[in-house]
Amino acid sequence: MGSSNTASTYDDDVDDSATESDKTVTKTDSDSDSETETDEEIRNRYDTGPFRVGEKVFAYHHHRYYEAKILQFERRRTGYHYYVHYLGWKKSWDEWLTADRLMEFTDRNRKIQEDLNKFHEERKKAELHPTSKRGTGRASHSKLRNSKGGRGKKRKNDSSTKKSAVSSEKLVNIQIPLTLKKQLIDDCEFITHFGKLVKLPRTPSVEDILKLYLDYRCKYDGIVTDSVREIFKGMRAYFNKALPVMLLYKSERQQYEYTITEDIRPSTVYGAEHLLRLFVKLPELLLRADIEEEALLELQQKIVDFLKFLQKNQKALFLSTYHVAEDVETRSNKQDN
After folding, report:
1. H helix runs in 127-195, sequence order
2. Cα(112)–Cα(253) distance, integer angstroms
3. Is residue 226 helix, strand or coil?
4. What is d(CA 116, CA 184) in angstroms, rounded to the nearest whole number?
5. Which residues of the chain are modeled with pLDDT < 50?
6. Which of 244, 235, 246, 243 is nearest to 289 (CA)?
7. Is 83 helix (H, G, I), strand (E, B) or coil?
8. Helix (H) or strand (E) holding 300
């Protein structure tokens, strides 16, 4: 709007001052050209990055996308950062976000927002309650949730604990790429809507995938440090502990009970589909772990790189179709008869 008003003023000046010098006319023509400047050209001219101040976007916060407006931007060493206000929420929720946590405000991205929010609602409804098999039940769940004190017991120094948790939460924020979020949504629909399951054992397994990633890094970096190996050894341990507690849907319990025995680790049987679910829960688990900030930052960087590896090899690592669970197939055959 401001651009066209300016152009209109210049046009009036040209009409009223036909005898102005060529220099003035040249200036007017130049300014008139700016009227057709696109949003992309404006961003480039003012160096605002992929988004501009005042633009409406979808902003990612705690596993959901919200409508937001960009109020400020900064160009830092780590890239563009945008200060956003969540529409309909108090200013106290305003925050700085990196560009990879924002999406353009388009119909296509609105569909992604709706699908992702729907996915998390389905997860809440269908999420597994702890199983009691082989000591991986409620006691282990409590241990994962809170290694210090009872589940419902109010802690002392609550305000300092809350402050620490908020700080840690920012450190372990995991931004899952959009194509992998879509994979999570499809995974949820296959299991909760169509009654299907991932056929086990999976090839490649979780352990195979972790080894493939380390080999990939060794090829490109020439070496894999002991600290990186420890990170992915810990990731495997987290997966084995968390799977029966919080990574399975209710309809997957029976399959787990039938497949996993005391001498079989879940990471040797399950694959990329269940491993990806871990990264939805991992920030929650890491908040309860006693990890120094420097180690957390390194962990976050490795997780981001690993998720890019999964995204790059998505077709090879993930199933495109699941198989019908035996009990569902049996019920279907009985109805046909």
Report:
1. 138-145, 158-171, 178-192
2. 29
3. helix
4. 9
5. 1-34, 128-171, 328-337
6. 235
7. strand
8. helix 293-312
